[in-house]
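Subject: mismatched residue count in predicted assembly?

I count 610 residues in my input, but I want to confirm that the predicted structure covers every chain. Input:
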Amino acid sequence: MVTGGAGFVGSHLVDRLMLMGHQVLVIDNYFTGKKWNIQQWIGHPNFEVIRHDVVDHIAAEVDEIYHLASPASPPHYQENPTKTIKTNVMGTINILGLAKRVKAKVLLASTSEVYGDPEIHPQTEDYWGHVNPIGPRACYDEGKRVAETLMYSYQTQQGVDIRVARIFNTFGPRMNLNDGRVVSNFIIQSLQNKNLTIYGDGSQTRSFQFVHDLVNGLIKLMNSNYSMPVNIGNPREFTILEFAKMIKEKTGTSGKIIHQPGAIDDPRRRRPDITVAQEKIGWHPSYSVEKGLDETIAFFKLHLV
Amino acid sequence: MVTGGAGFVGSHLVDRLMLMGHQVLVIDNYFTGKKWNIQQWIGHPNFEVIRHDVVDHIAAEVDEIYHLASPASPPHYQENPTKTIKTNVMGTINILGLAKRVKAKVLLASTSEVYGDPEIHPQTEDYWGHVNPIGPRACYDEGKRVAETLMYSYQTQQGVDIRVARIFNTFGPRMNLNDGRVVSNFIIQSLQNKNLTIYGDGSQTRSFQFVHDLVNGLIKLMNSNYSMPVNIGNPREFTILEFAKMIKEKTGTSGKIIHQPGAIDDPRRRRPDITVAQEKIGWHPSYSVEKGLDETIAFFKLHLV
Ligand SMILES: NC(=O)c1ccc[n+]([C@@H]2O[C@H](COP(=O)([O-])OP(=O)(O)OC[C@H]3O[C@@H](n4cnc5c(N)ncnc54)[C@H](O)[C@@H]3O)[C@@H](O)[C@H]2O)c1
Ligand SMILES: NC(=O)c1ccc[n+]([C@@H]2O[C@H](COP(=O)([O-])OP(=O)(O)OC[C@H]3O[C@@H](n4cnc5c(N)ncnc54)[C@H](O)[C@@H]3O)[C@@H](O)[C@H]2O)c1
Ligand SMILES: O=c1ccn([C@@H]2O[C@H](COP(=O)(O)OP(=O)(O)O)[C@@H](O)[C@H]2O)c(=O)[nH]1
Ligand SMILES: O=c1ccn([C@@H]2O[C@H](COP(=O)(O)OP(=O)(O)O)[C@@H](O)[C@H]2O)c(=O)[nH]1
Ligand SMILES: O=c1ccn([C@@H]2O[C@H](COP(=O)(O)OP(=O)(O)O)[C@@H](O)[C@H]2O)c(=O)[nH]1
Ligand SMILES: O=c1ccn([C@@H]2O[C@H](COP(=O)(O)OP(=O)(O)O)[C@@H](O)[C@H]2O)c(=O)[nH]1
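Triage response: the counts match. Full output below for your records.
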């Protein structure tokens, strides 16, 4: 089972699981996902998709659950903060209740946002984070932190077999064209010869991984027997300004780089320490950011009409 | 309306509101509260109590809501972490939904635990906190942090008029005799001439306020027009060892001070900076810890039979 399987990351995970011969059940309410992302499997005997909100009771018999259902980009998750919290809290409780009943393994797609605006760099899994509980990002950051809390509660109280992936910024084909994240914004702006909008001075950093690396990591983590949180991300760090320049160059756009007001509580730096992933689940990224960007730009060219 | 009104703090708040001539409606599921705490008002025409769980839809027409429903002591809130999270998340959503519908003011009883094991001392309201999202205290700490997130979401999205009190350790008559907190443990151990159990070396600190001071603070905050978080606590700081000695002396017990293993993720230091409370709502504590302890010890003597 893949919740949020019609989304960007979920649909790539579904592709891989289907190609591996699994029976796949997708649960999605299409809030940010699209049926188009999984249409290639509709009608396949191993595949099923149900339109369902994870906030409501879930009925299914499954062995493994990848729990990805949650809006992921700031404009989406800030649109209805209460709903974001309900999805992460009630959704995760329902998935854990289901997992308990059917004795399934559950993997939670958590996020580097649990570290907030980090004071240690790069971020290791034992860092407790630096999150503003009453800021505009809190509904997502705190929602995911509580989702993790719930995972470990069900592990301790109910013996549920859990995995927790802390996912760092990810990009690739099928990213939501208008989800407002930096990769899609810069590529679309470039392809339309519009200006590339940097929020703030562009000195803030992010580390970007290609989606196929992430999918590898999620599957490796599920199949490992390591149940503490694991960072999944590419440790190569860019300032947003460097990143804008790179996309400008790759696309040959005539758009210019412009600066807009910085976002509130925008993390200053972000880079994963992936020692745990390497040592415990034998994973490290293998796509270069350049190669990933080429594929992503090609995808956007095809779909921007 | 007072949720959690049959509890320790809630029942003192109810006393004060009744004496001020208000109509008071208590909502409580008696998880840690007792009818005994509010029996003095049962039958009074201005008073009503409903056995109800705040996790479920709440029907009522009210002007002001003091939202206190939540277990508060570590042994209680760790007994069922998922329930603790549900109470704080779904309970707060329901209260805010109700407040939105009837246009009531809502005050959330938040906690100094949102600061976790703090790295700054004393704690000011703008500190983002240092909380382990996957530790044994997380269900309470993160539950309250999300409750705050929800308060500010409903303020921004729905225009609900909110107040957020960050309450520091509080003691007084009607504390749950067996709730495992340090004040009740030390007093009961002393009165029974048993040993006083210090967890760890006793160098960790806490600041203790008497419950009547807290009740003053909550009412002042509700009647103010300040909607950002406000610390309510007594800034006088004790090490747990000093505190044990003080209670030993006051009770003249023959019990000795002994050390037991420290608690996991036990905050090392805790003391409120109450500048905001003083400047914005004109509040500061007026009971000395000594006077409060005398009243509390007298109460325990009466009820320990
Ligand atoms: N993409 C990243 O950079 C990134 C980084 C960190 C974590 N994550 C996490 O990975 C997961 C997938 O992210 P994504 O980038 O694919 O986002 P996405 O928005 O493309 O996908 C999320 C999917 O969840 C579905 N969904 C949302 N709320 C739901 C609900 N209540 N019930 C059922 N389905 C619901 C959406 O319709 C969508 O299909 C999320 O949990 C996200 O928090 C992503
Ligand atoms: N006492 C302190 O030192 C302290 C410190 C910080 C914050 N607080 C907060 O103050 C509030 C009151 O604490 P207290 O010390 O009086 O604790 P308490 O346990 O005595 O009171 C809590 C009350 O809430 C009720 N309750 C719990 N879950 C409920 C639910 N799901 N539905 C309805 N009622 C429910 C309990 O039955 C009880 O009457 C709590 O929100 C607590 O987090 C207390
Ligand atoms: O197959 C199932 C089993 C449980 N749940 C939900 O999971 C949550 C937690 O279930 P659990 O059994 O842990 O607790 P309880 O039912 O006691 O709340 C509940 O809201 C259930 O509705 C679900 O959605 N599908
Ligand atoms: O058009 C944009 C979109 C985002 N950003 C910045 O790029 C970084 C990454 O933003 P994104 O929303 O992609 O993800 P986040 O890591 O903040 O969740 C942040 O510093 C944003 O302020 C930007 O400069 N221009
Ligand atoms: O008088 C009321 C009004 C609302 N709610 C609950 O408050 C929550 C949030 O209500 P809101 O109207 O904000 O959102 P929605 O109903 O759209 O979820 C819902 O679960 C309602 O059941 C309640 O308990 N009492
Ligand atoms: O019998 C006890 C109970 C508590 N404590 C310590 O006293 C402090 C306050 O504990 P309490 O549970 O009262 O409240 P907290 O502030 O930790 O929520 C903590 O450092 C506890 O480890 C102790 O030494 N002995």
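Chain B has a mean pLDDT of 97. Marking this ticket as 'not a bug'.
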